[in-house]
Design brief:
Order of helices and strands of chain A: HHHHHHHHHH
Largest sheet of chain A: none
Radius of gyration of chain B: 24 Å
Number of strands of chain A: 0
CATH topology of the largest domain in chain B: Phosphorylase Kinase, domain 1
Number of helices of chain A: 10
Helix content of chain A: over 70%
Shape of chain B: globular
Helix content of chain B: 25-40%
Strand content of chain B: 5-15%
Shape of chain A: elongated
Radius of gyration of chain A: 19 Å
Oligomer: heterodimer
Number of strands of chain B: 12
Number of helices of chain B: 9
Chain lengths: 181, 383
């Protein structure tokens, strides 16, 4: 590799740091470790081709062109956090990765018209947002502790905290649906 | 190491999956080059018939990927095509998202020129979609599209093979009249081109149903955000739900597209460079650019040395002198004594084989030959 190429790679890594928080080589390698993937499987979940993934990781290319892929990267980062703090089991993580893989940027006509979608995915999405909001405020351990403090006086609030802050997604969905109507 | 098929084609590794079977990177021992082979595990007569019809289609055009040859063996049939290494348009969108309008226009122009040739043969493709539009691995150069997979193509006016035509084609890239079960016609392919164009410009799978609805309710809608107005004029003309309000020919659409390109804005200076990668990956061990790395030994030498080159492949064939079952002995070019199987080498000089079919041709081959003949007659009558 000559000096010009090295310089271009360094610049690409710098750009990646400013766009994605860190160079994509490091970011993707951590996802691979945390989620028990390999490079080919990560490429397939993200919807990238293997050569593209490798160019991004090595800094030959700076930008992820496809916005849907950026969204999938974010979803996987979130998922790996949840796996790390134990709120998502390995089996559930595999299932969630399949969902991430299938997720797309939405329909072409989105900009001008919203299509009515079926209820189930929406509930799941709302639940996930509540979960991630709670978890961005406090860790699972803190939330459980707070729930224990609250449970004698405000059992329903305590349950809410426990279910969305430290429970499984399926449990939270059930809770949401039970309280929806 | 791959098997040799019908004495000529050595299957190397699977590189994709088409409608009716897997596609393998394959070494052609006669032509001494790599080809792509679509392999059909023999199944029902209907699938076989589709396969035969597909292989019967020979269209020579730089943007059409048509079958070159076919061969049959005991339990399988295959046909070969040129190798195309750059993946499909679906790969390209996965990697880059929405493509720049000028780049899209180059691809559409090539697709329409391919369709002009296909339609000139009286053939309706019926399955135009991103996954069937392959790319040569041209890197950062000008892209080169190849229209492939004629598995459900039909000659116009030809009797249909099935009554279940409704399930033919890919949901999402269907023209509305195709959904209604009308006779296949060229404008249906043009509608699909319009959807492919939307997919390339927006990076998302278009919602054909919603689109048709909007056309029906409010006439020609305004352009989606990502589509420049001059280009939308062409696309709307491809996407009209009424086939009679669409372009009638691919050539006509191509001409309108060329005019629209003139009106497009100059691309921004910082536009991302699109590179069409080689998606095939390296050859597996034991294969080089010139085919399998075990050299055919001179015929005077009965037993091959375990190779002088280092680290060929971890093979055991050379160890036991008379292997009980030689892996797939194809037609030997130089007939060995019949009692003695061509045991010394796994692939006895298949390069010179002239007849691809064994004398003890199984039923499949006969059936296939008959079908080919029938399709030929059809084609003649249709022409």
């Amino acid at each position: 590799m000559d000096a010009a190429q090295q310089e271009a790679t360094a610049r690409a890594r710098e750009l990646q740091r400013s766009w994605y928080g860190e160079p994509l080589g490091a970011l993707f390698r951590r996802l691979i470790d945390d989620l028990g993937l390999n490079q080919a499987r990560l490429a397939s979940v993200l919807g990238l081709s293997a050569p593209m993934l490798s160019q991004l990781m090595s800094g030959q290319r700076a930008k992820i062109g496809n916005p849907a892929v950026v969204q999938r990267v974010q979803a996987l980062q979130e998922l790996s956090r949840q796996v790390a703090d134990g709120t998502v089991s390995a089996a559930e993580a595999a299932e969630r990765m399949e969902e991430v893989k299938r997720s797309s940027g939405g329909s072409v006509l989105n900009s001008t018209q919203t299509t009515a979608s079926s209820g189930a995915p929406t509930v799941r999405r709302v639940v996930r947002e509540i979960q991630s909001l709670l978890r961005s405020v406090a860790g699972a351990g803190d939330i459980i502790e707070a729930a224990q403090l609250l449970s004698p006086t405000h059992p329903e609030l305590a349950e809410f905290l426990r279910v969305y802050g430290a429970g499984r997604t399926s449990e939270a969905v059930a809770h949401y649906e039970a309280h929806q109507s | 190491m791959g098997e040799v098929f019908a004495g000529r084609y050595q299957l190397v590794d699977p590189i994709g999956r088409g409608g009716a079977g897997a596609v393998w990177r394959t070494w052609d021992h006669r032509r001494r080059r790599y080809v792509a082979a679509k392999v059909l595990q023999q199944s029902d007569a209907h699938t076989l018939l589709r396969f035969v019809r597909e292989q019967a289609l020979r269209i020579d055009h730089p943007h059409v990927l048509a079958p070159m040859n076919w061969a049959a063996d005991d339990d399988k049939v295959l046909f070969t095509m040129e190798m195309v290494g750059g993946g499909s348009l679906a790969h390209l969108i996965g990697d880059y998202g929405p493509l720049p309008p000028r780049y899209v226009c180059v691809l559409l122009d090539q697709l329409l020129s391919a369709l002009t040739a296909v339609h000139a043969e009286g053939v309706v493709h019926r399955d135009i979609k991103p996954a069937n539009l392959l790319l040569e691995a041209t890197g950062t150069g000008r892209p080169h599209l190849r229209l492939s997979d004629f598995g459900i193509a039909m000659r116009k006016g030809e009797p249909r093979l099935t009554e279940t035509n409704l399930v033919m084609g890919t949901p999402g890239y269907f023209a509305p009249e195709q959904m209604l079960g009308e006779e296949p016609d060229f404008p249906a392919d043009l509608f699909a081109v319009g959807l492919v164009a939307l997919y390339l410009l927006t990076g998302r799978k278009p919602d054909a149903e919603a689109l048709v609805e909007r056309f029906t309710e409010q006439g020609v809608p305004g352009p989606p955000q990502e589509v420049p107005a001059p280009l939308w004029d062409v696309l709307a003309h491809l996407l009209h739900p009424d086939p009679y309000a669409r372009f009638r020919t691919a050539a006509g659409a191509r001409k309108a597209l060329a005019a629209a390109v003139e009106l497009l804005a100059e691309p921004p200076a910082d536009e991302e460079r699109i590179e069409v990668f080689d998606q095939l990956g390296p050859l597996p061990p034991g294969y080089g650019p010139d085919g399998p790395e075990t050299q055919p030994v001179p015929e005077t030498k009965p037993v091959p040395e375990p190779e002088t080159e280092p680290a060929t492949r971890p093979e055991t064939e050379s160890v036991p002198p008379p292997p009980a079952v030689p892996p797939l002995p194809p037609l030997p070019a130089v007939p060995p004594p019949p009692a003695q199987p061509p045991a010394t080498r796994p692939y006895p000089a298949p390069v010179r084989v002239t007849a691809p079919v064994r004398v003890t041709a199984p039923l499949a081959v006969l059936l296939l030959a008959l079908l080919c003949l029938a399709v030929g007659v059809w084609a003649l009558m249709a022409a």
